[in-house]
TrEMBL record:
Highest taxon, organism lineage: Eukaryota
Ranges for domain PPIase FKBP-type: 45-133, 157-245, 269-357, 381-468
Documented EC number(s): 5.2.1.8
Catalyses which reaction(s): [protein]-peptidylproline (omega=180) = [protein]-peptidylproline (omega=0)
Region (Disordered): 533-564
Alphabetically ordered keywords of this record: Calcium, Endoplasmic reticulum, Glycoprotein, Isomerase, Metal-binding, Repeat, Rotamase, Signal
Gene name as annotated: Fkbp10
Compartment(s) of residence: Endoplasmic reticulum
Name the record gives this protein: peptidylprolyl isomerase
Keyword Calcium in record: yes
Coarse class of the protein's main subcellular location: endoplasmic reticulum
Organism lineage string: Eukaryota, Metazoa, Chordata, Craniata, Vertebrata
Entry-linked PANTHER family: PEPTIDYL-PROLYL CIS-TRANS ISOMERASE FKBP10, PEPTIDYLPROLYL ISOMERASE
Span of domain EF-hand: 487-514, 524-559
Length: 564
């Protein structure tokens, strides 16, 4: 081997105390701690930051950066340091530790430093390397993880919310948002951040995680920051972008599922019932109507809900599933809401429209089938029998007459069914089939009914089975022509001056049979006759006297007379 190598070898042995082989030719380097990962090695012209202790051979300390409480920073290899130091620091990694032995001719020589270092002193240094950078460095960005879906990335003037851990290059932590329990929120590219951060956040997706290494000239430079960031320090940020938006953003819509047939779309002033899941951009669920097991019901476009939702529900179809992405200035702004929605958060609503209507809506009638020979149709007060299926607009079945032995029976206009169904059964022929869409104000209203949610639009399929002509309201029986002049005498069949129930019943049935009059239609004519009898038997003694018997038309006249 070359003589130089031999001398180095001998000098190391000498340093270990095997006799003194004479003065050292070069610096002796002992790399006593080398980190597993070497981020970069010191090269000529690099700017470095390090700590050291300097001693003489006998262990007496002559200098220490630790004692001064500040790291040393400077450029290596350009003659600013003693030559032994310039050489001894070459190739060092961040966090590497070295013992250096510097002979006098590479130190302070035969002159020394007055009052500090005697002439011809061999110097012993213990050095730890903390930071390395170069004025030609660029930002180093490493993407640690990234969501599969990313339809937008950060641009200048965007407002970002992110979590971060900040360390120096040697791993010393100086700051973290995680300890503060809230994200760091700021504008990008407007000078609010250090230059390296402004650049390092560009192009990020929501949910992306990056490591950003920032050289000091793109960070806090020669000044450092308070006591936590020393002068000329490189910074390492591990950043998780939680969400971002731009102040110019509007509502962003994704149509996930639009029904094929959409006859009508919701507009301002419509009342919408919908289910939703509300999440933050990182997927955190902050609210859900499904968890309450009932829809959210509201007017749209009227300011009852956040502006982004007022806009985002415009034009929805019944049954549509839609994603509405709302920037904070159209949601809960800088303050957020409750403990679930942070300030300046972007909100994502996945909505499913169950139904909507307008308070002005009439009943919508669609005739599915109408017999050709149709001359007689249902009118007010008619007694009808019909079959029906009732469901919500999302297809949920509520009630059906087919679950019972026989069809439903009702007198139209007698307030026995909801208004919308009543009007939807008018002007129908026997055998006709219709589909009725009934808005809640003509149905069960805001409070609903058993099995019917509040404000629900109902869908009825109806089929008219039969109809009978009715009698006017308040009547149980009407004469087709003029009633007999001596009604009581005719009714008193056995002429004993009183009319018991069976006599009354026989008389009425005869009139009906001969077509002289008709009873109010019902499934129980006996009951109608019994009611008539009870009305006439005014003292309830089981028989009608001639004083008691009065026609309804005469009674009504008397009432009017009394009121006049």
């Amino acid at each position: 081997s070359s003589p130089g190598g031999l001398i180095l070898l001998l000098s190391i042995l000498g340093a270990l105390g095997l006799g003194d082989p004479g003065p050292l030719e070069d610096v002796v380097i002992d790399r006593y701690y080398i980190p597993k990962i070497c981020l970069r090695e010191v090269q000529m012209g690099d700017f470095i930051r390090y700590h050291y202790n300097g001693t003489f051979k006998d262990g007496k300390k002559f200098d220490s950066s630790y004692d001064r409480g500040a790291t040393v920073a400077g450029v290596v290899g350009v003659g600013r340091l003693i030559t032994g130091m310039d050489r001894g620091l070459q190739g060092m990694c961040v966090n590497e530790r070295r013992h250096l032995i510097v002979p006098p001719h590479l130190g302070y020589g035969s002159i020394g430093v007055a009052g500090l270092i005697p002439p011809d002193a061999t110097l012993y240094f213990d050095v730890v390397m903390l930071d390395i950078w170069n004025k030609n460095d660029k930002l180093q960005i490493t993407t640690l993880s990234k969501p599969e879906r990313c339809n937008r990335t950060v641009e200048n003037s965007d407002f970002v919310r992110y979590h971060y851990n900040g360390t120096l290059l040697d791993g010393t932590p100086f700051d973290s948002s995680y300890s503060k329990d809230s994200t760091y929120d700021t504008y990008v590219g407007t000078g609010w951040l250090i230059k390296g951060m402004d650049q390092g956040l560009l192009g990020m997706c929501a949910g992306e995680k990056r490591s950003i290494i920032i050289p000091p000239f793109l960070a806090y430079g020669e000044k450092g920051y308070r006591t936590v960031i020393p002068p000329q320090a490189s910074l390492v940020f591990s950043v998780l972008l939680v969400d971002f938006h731009n102040p110019k953003d509007g509502v962003f819509l994704e149509h996930l599922e639009v029904p094929e047939s959409c006859k009508r779309r919701a507009v301002t002033g419509d009342f919408v019932r919908y289910h939703y899941n509300g999440t933050l951009m990182d997927g955190t669920l902050f609210d859900s109507s499904y968890s309450r097991n009932q829809t959210y019901n509201t007017y749209i476009g009227k300011g009852y809900i956040i502006p982004g939702m007022d806009q985002g529900l415009q034009g929805v179809c019944m049954g549509e599933r839609r994603r509405v992405v709302i920037p904070p200035h159209l949601a809960y702004g800088e303050n957020g809401a409750g403990d679930k929605i942070p300030g300046s958060a972007v909100l994502i609503f996945d909505v499913h429209i169950i139904d909507f209507h307008n308070p002005e809506d009439p009943v919508e009638i669609e005739t599915v089938y109408r017999p050709e020979d149709c001359n007689v149709t249902t009118r007010d007060r008619d007694f009808i029998r019909y079959h029906y299926n009732c469901s919500l607009l999302d297809g949920t079945k509520l009630f059906s007459s087919h679950d019972y032995e026989k069809p439903q029976e009702v007198t139209l206009g007698a307030n026995k069914v909801i208004e919308g169904l009543n009007s939807g059964l008018l002007n129908m022929c026997t055998g006709e089939r219709r589909v009725l869409i009934i808005p809640p104000h003509l149905g069960h209203g805001e409070s609903g009914a058993r099995g019917v949610p509040g404000s629900a639009v109902l869908r009825f399929e109806v089929e008219l089975i039969s109809m009978e002509e009715g009698v006017p309201e308040g009547y149980l029986f009407i004469w087709h022509g003029e009633p007999p002049t001596s009604l009581y005498e005719q009714m008193d069949l056995n002429k004993d001056g009183e009319i018991p129930a069976d006599e009354f019943s026989t008389f009425i049935k005869t009139q009906v049979a001969e077509g002289k009059g008709r009873l109010m239609p019902s499934s129980d004519p006996e009951k109608v006759i019994a009611d008539m009898f009870r009305n006439q038997d005014r003292n309830q003694d089981g028989k009608i006297t001639s004083e008691e018997l009065k026609l309804k038309s005469d009674e009504d006249q008397e009432k009017i007379h009394e009121e006049l």
